[in-house]
Amino acid sequence: MITASRSGPLECDYNLHKSNSTYFSDFDVGRLQLLVSLIGHGLNSTRNELAKEMPKEKAGFSIMLGGVACNFRREIKPFEGFEMWTRILAWDRKWLFVIGHFVRPGAVKPKRYIYQPWMKTRDGKGDSNGSAGNGMEGKAGAHPAIFASAIAKYCFKKGRLTIPVERVLQASQLLPTKPADHETPPVSETPVSEGTSLDGASGAINLIAERMTPDNAGEILAASLTPKDGEDVWGWSRVENERLRGMKIAGLYNGLDALNEEFIGEGVAVLGRY
Length: 274
Fold this sequence. Notes:
Helices cover about 25% and strands about 20% of the residues. By secondary structure, it is α+β, with helices and mostly antiparallel strands. A hairpin with a 4-residue loop joins strand 3 and strand 4 (about 95-105). Mean pLDDT is about 80; it is low at about 135-140 and about 190-205.
């Protein structure tokens, strides 16, 4: 999903560029439009199903934001335009991970517009079949037009009960037919423990973590999400492979939950209270 905006004067700080705090509100807008478009119908269907399954539960069904982070690559100057490219990265049993890239407008042209087939694509023509490509045909590496990249995670709740993300995606008709022997992916943990959805990939994840820096994170993400040659049909196996590749990045982001354990306010000296 692409949403266009511009850096207004009230969004700029004393460095005369878009303030870091304002990126999150733009990311909010991009994520909202993406999720309403993709899973709006599925949310309503799941809400109705849960009301029948849990008639005594008075709490409503809701989607909750669990966290958001942003890495800055290049500044956005006053009045400069930008595009927010937002998509689903991956999911486990609890969390749906969404990423967004702030991109220089016009620098990147999509292969197709699924909802707007009359729009001009990268070859200058419209697309009449409305089919979806994988969106990752380009070369691996961070695109020079990227200003910043962000990631967020959502969960679905009915009172205190967490609803599996896969259930909502199925209700939204976003997943192919599920094999009978497939289990809903478990919640990822940090560090990755045995038996999670990343079982067998922990060595690769540790290698990524060792090599990742603020300068190469975008390149590692692009390389990890590049499909193999000949993968054209989005069956369950390919969807699951892409989900696991995305979880290599999402799992690292989930590791930030350990920051809560770094709070040591009780009984320590502080600089002051203002």
